[in-house]
Amino acid sequence: MTFWFPGRWIGGVAMIVAPLLLVLSQLLLLQFEFFFPQQLKAFDQLPTQVTTAYSLFLAGNIFLWPAILTLAKLVGQRQPAWARWGGTLVMLGLFARTFHYGINHLAFQLVKVQNLQLATKAVADSYGAFHIVSSLSGAIMFGWAILAIGTYRSGVLSLVSSIGLGLMSALMLGVLKGASFVSIFATVGLCVALLPLGKSVLMSGPIPKVRMILSWALLILGIATLMYFFGQAG
User: Fold this and answer.
1) Who's near 231: CB < 8 A, 6+ residues apart?
2) Mind listing the pLDDT tens digit for each residue in 134-193?
3) What's the pTM value of the predicted model, to 2 decimals?
4) How far apart, in whole angstroms, are the C-alpha atoms of residue 33 and residue 12?
5) What is the tally of helices (H) and strands (E) in the chain?
6) Of 63, 69, 116, 181, which sits most exposed with the smallest number of CB within 10 A?
7) Burial code of 42-54, b = ≥16 C-beta within 10 A, e = fewer?
8) 110 neighbors 118 (Cβ within 8 angstroms)
9) CA 137, 67, 6: angle at the middle one, nearest 5?
């Protein structure tokens, strides 16, 4: 069997987990108004819910990298140019969103350690400040559309699923953006595109025995726990 990275297990599981995390995050934020003053106010009033929502989105965004690599591999078998350009732009967009969520985290901490008014003023005064990641906004917007065209032209996804994938181009970008019905539509479209494909990727090879699945699950859980406590140590 030819080796490929990240492999069908990591890639297939990521295709299923990542879209579900994104949808759930948007559902948790939908009740709040969209722009940053209201997002900071929502955090001040309901910190657990807002923190959970933003954390779920960030986790889903991180989990998307193996999903996109796997999707680009499948597309590249018949449409290599679309796979290269679409996959690269989407990956750059994932980096950009991760950067944005670092800023989100700091803004929420300002609410906690100072107050809502000072945090809102700090964000307002620095909003639009130059950073190199702002150059990747186009990658966030157009990468999904390019990759979606590749999935359809290569036959990896149906027309409906490819359109669902392309809807991610409509997902809001930037700092402290909430949810809307457009973002729900976009993330549900990602589920339509990736969940069935993730199942197909997982079923494309031999299924390991239950004992091996449990062993790997325990190992991954143990490593994740160690990484969590290591991260908390600073």
Assistant:
1) none
2) 999 999 999 999 999 999 999 999 999 999 999 999 999 999 999 999 999 999 999 999
3) 0.94
4) 34
5) 9, 0
6) 181
7) bbbeeeeebeebb
8) yes
9) 120
Q: How far apart are CA 92 and CA 209, in angstroms?
A: 37
The DSSP symbol for 116 reads H
Residue 224, SS3 per DSSP:
helix
Give the tokens for residue 112.
């906690």
The sign one gets for the Cα dihedral 53, 58, 63, 64 is: positive
CA angle at 162 for the pair 194 and 155, rounded to the nearest 5°: 95
Single-letter code of the amino acid located at 29? L
Structure tokens at 114: 């100072």
pLDDT digits (tens, 9 = 90+) for 88-119: 999 999 999 999 999 999 999 999 999 999 99
